[in-house]
Amino acid sequence: MTPARPALDPELRELLADMPLMSRLTPEVLAQLRRLPPAPVDSLLAHRQVDWREVTAPATDGAPIPLSIFSPADRATAAPCVYWMHGGGMVMGDRFSQIDIPLEWLDRFGAVVVSVEYRLAPEATGTALVDDCYQGLLWIAEHSAELGIDPARIVVAGASAGGGLAAGVTLLARDRGTPPIAAQMLICPMLDHRNTSTSSRQFSGGPGVWTREMNEFGWRSVLGDLTGDEVSPYVSPALADDLSGLPTTYVDTGSAEVFRDEDADYATRIWAAGGQAELHVWAGGFHGFDALYPQAHISATARRTRTDWLARVLSPDSAA
């Protein structure tokens, strides 16, 4: 029996009523979703003074990793950088997915936004996805002067699967000692392949934006037959035994979504390790609510709160 669920925010519930929802993913459905047109980028840039550049970074196996670089035009000083990892359950999406979120930080802070096209499961498995993202970060750090980036103000950010990858990249950077990361922004991150939390069970057995069954499909696509100790904490960051030494962290999630409990637990464990984290659980928010319906009041509040946190992190007086 599925446990009772927290109610949706009334405005979100009304908006969601017109959206076609699924209960599970299959290879056939995934193929159809991948054929959908990519996110429109030109319309997002039309009113902005932005230089857009496409480059590639080498993966560990030599494959090219596409990076899209959006820089404020005519900037005079080294800028902060937001390194963006898109969502899509690790099985779909591209580097332009949810790009409107970090572009708001380009507007507000003059940040250079770099979005990475990591390889997707099931074609890529194991640590390949997080390794792609880490190699992209290394490339940014190595080319910071050329890109006009202040290497001391690189923020790693992502939503959903991208939030989980951002957490994995940050663990990698800590453990390998490079490059320095000023902060990590984890938006409704996909952190735990075990899929056993109360919130996971609450959002099982019915249609939704991202259900327990869809989550199982995504993780199975990445991990295949790997189990237990074979799963890397860089892929499933909730497995990491040690969350000390991480940069200041922002975690947000909705009360009405699969990832609520694993996200709250991750922030709690950062505090327990002596680190700094800010956690927001948006009452009545479903998975990705602010990306799907940015016009909703709760969405505008969530996005503004993230931006206010980044303003503090990027302030010259910040200890981050």
Features of this protein?
single chain, 320 residues, alpha/beta, Rossmann fold, 8-stranded mixed beta sheet, 12 helices, 36% helix, globular
Strand order of the largest sheet: 1-2-4-3-5-6-7-8
Q: Calculate the terminal CA-CA distance, rounded to whole Å.
A: 45 Å
Taking all Cα atoms into account, the compactness measure Rg is 18 Å
Structural class of the secondary elements? alpha/beta
Element-by-element helix/strand order:
HHHEEEHEHHEHEHHEHEHH
Helix tally equals 12
- Looking at this structure, what is the CATH superfamily? Alpha/Beta hydrolase fold, catalytic domain
Taking all residues together, what is the mean pLDDT?
Answer: 95
The number of distinct structural domains comes to 1
Please bin the fraction of helical residues. 25-40%
Uncertain segments of ≥5 residues (pLDDT<50)? Answer: none
Question: Per CATH, what is the topology?
Answer: Rossmann fold
Report the top-level CATH class: Alpha Beta
Counting DSSP E segments of at least 2 residues, the number of strands comes to: 8
Strand content: 15-25%
Report a brief summary of the structure.
With 320 residues, the chain is of the alpha/beta class. 36% of the residues lie in helices and 18% in strands.
Detailed description of the structure:
It is a single chain. This protein is α/β, with parallel strands linked by helices. It has a single domain (10-313), classed as Rossmann fold (3-Layer(aba) Sandwich). It is 36% helix and 18% strand. It has twelve helices and eight strands. It has an eight-stranded mixed beta sheet, sandwiched between helices. Strand 1 and strand 2 (64-72) form a beta hairpin. Helix 4 packs across helix 12 (297-313) and helix 5 (128-142) packs across helix 7 (161-176).
